[in-house]
Amino acid sequence: MAEKRFEITQEGPVSIMEFSLPASLDALEIDGVIESVLQKLSAAEHGRWIADLSQVQYLGSSMLGLFVNMRERIRQAGGTLVLCGMSQQLMRIFRTCCLERLFVIAHSRKEAMVIASER
């Protein structure tokens, strides 16, 4: 089930992780998503990454922690992570938690591709 919550595709040198998360997930499903994402990421965490959040309605603290963890792993491996497709609600959550300072955030996937390709 966790595999259906995200998909990884490749566009040139950039890996795109597209998330599809509803407003609520149970704890087991959240744990499964986190485990699956980190497992896939550890196989190829170096390089350029985009996390497309256009199909995400809400992120709770566990999922926010996942994104911080992803950013750190990618950064330590010499890569870069760009977030894109965030709704106004998600942006408010990131601002409330002061996370917008940690991440490079693009409005669209196209803009994220340009940013990720330059880094």
Question: Could you characterize the architecture of this molecule?
Answer:
The radius of gyration is 13 Å and the shape is globular. The chain has helices spanning 27-43, 61-76, 88-96, 109-118; strands at residues 6-11, 14-21, 48-56, 80-84, 104-106. It has one domain: 2-Layer Sandwich (Transcription Regulator spoIIAA). It contains 4 helices and 5 strands; from the N terminus they run E-E-H-E-H-E-H-E-H. A 5-stranded mixed β-sheet has the order 1-2-3-4-5. The model has no long low-confidence stretch (mean pLDDT 89). Helix 1 (27-43) packs parallel to helix 2. Strand 2, helix 1 and strand 3 (48-56) form a beta-alpha-beta unit.
Order of helices and strands: EEHEHEHEH
CATH superfamily: STAS domain
Helical segment count: 4
The strand count comes to 5
Low-confidence stretches: none
Proportion in β-strands? 25-35%
- Give the integer mean of the pLDDT values: 89
From the 3D coordinates, which CATH architecture would you assign?
A: 2-Layer Sandwich
| Overall domain count | 1
Question: What overall geometry do the principal axes of the alpha carbons give?
Answer: globular
Can you tell me the CATH class?
Alpha Beta
Rg, rounded, reads 13 Å
The profile of the biggest β sheet is:
5 strands, mixed
In spatial order, strands of the major sheet run 1-2-3-4-5
Structural class by sheet pairing and helices? alpha/beta
Q: Which fold name fills CATH's third level, the topology?
A: Transcription Regulator spoIIAA
Helix content: 40-55%
Terminal Cα span: 33 Å
